[in-house]
Write a structure and sequence with these properties.
Radius of gyration: 16 Å
CATH superfamily: 2,3-Dihydroxybiphenyl 1,2-Dioxygenase, domain 1
Order of helices and strands: EHEEEEHEEEEHEEEE
InterPro entries: Glyas_Bleomycin-R_OHBP_Dase (IPR029068), VOC_core (IPR037523)
Protein name: VOC domain-containing protein
Helix content: 10-25%
Strand content: 35-45%
Strand order of the largest sheet: 6-7-8-5-9-11-10
Number of strands: 13
Largest sheet: 7 strands, mixed
Number of helices: 3
CATH class: Alpha Beta
Number of domains: 1
CATH architecture: Roll
Length: 216
């Protein structure tokens, strides 16, 4: 499943544009007075300005499965990498056969670079912004994640993520390439103490040649 575009909110479009363009070095492909579209590998990250917005999102980018250490070094020159515990910044998701590192953008959004070792996407070139492959996860906050997941499956012929233990508190739809991460409100976004909140989110998916537009 491919996350072709996610659309989320920011309360400062100028600072957001500057962060993604100047800090993460991602190309701006479209810009207006109150929105910006950023190319992130094969995905588009769109921000729409809402000056009253005061919350955060969580989303992740897939990176080559052999480049996490290089990605961490690249990040350290640009952002504060989040420590998981005991000075370790790498999260190990054994069931998903993946490792990840976390950091914040200018909005306080929780961003993640994740290396999924079951994807055949290793690279030899040194890590830089062009190594970001796509948006691989977007967090969706809902009172009933499992129920929402079943509704999406029934309506759009999607599937729960086979590597995840899907529960009433946490469920994932999709695959290693693209995931909807569905959690209950006030569940802390790992590895932080920041509680999840239900924020307006739009997602354009592509799966098996079918395009799906979702609004949450």
């Amino acid at each position: 499943m491919k996350l072709e575009q996610i659309q989320i909110q920011t309360n400062n479009i100028l600072k957001t544009t500057a962060f993604y363009q100047d800090v993460l070095e991602l190309p701006i492909i479209e810009k207006s007075e109150n929105s910006v579209c950023i190319q992130a590998g094969n995905s588009v990250l769109k921000f729409v300005e809402n000056t009253n917005f005061n919350s955060i999102y969580h989303f992740a980018f897939n990176i080559p499965e052999n480049k996490l250490e290089e990605a961490i070094e690249w990040c350290k020159n640009k952002v504060d990498v989040i420590v998981i515990e005991d000075q370790n910044v790498i999260a190990n998701f054994e069931n998903w056969n993946a490792h990840a590192v976390y950091f914040y953008d200018n909005n306080g959004n929780l961003l993640e670079f994740i290396a999924r070792h079951d994807l055949n996407n290793s690279q030899t070139a040194a890590f830089n912004s062009k190594s970001i492959l796509n948006i691989s996860e977007i967090g969706i906050v809902n009172e009933n994640p499992l129920e929402l997941g079943n509704q999406l499956i029934a309506k759009h012929n999607l599937n729960f993520f086979s590597k995840n233990e899907n529960t009433e508190a946490f469920a994932a739809i999709g695959d290693d390439e693209g995931l909807l991460i569905m959690v209950r409100p006030n569940r802390n976004w790992y590895p932080t103490q920041t509680p999840s909140e239900n924020n307006k989110t739009e997602v354009k998916l592509e799966i098996n040649g079918n395009n799906i537009d979702l609004k949450f």
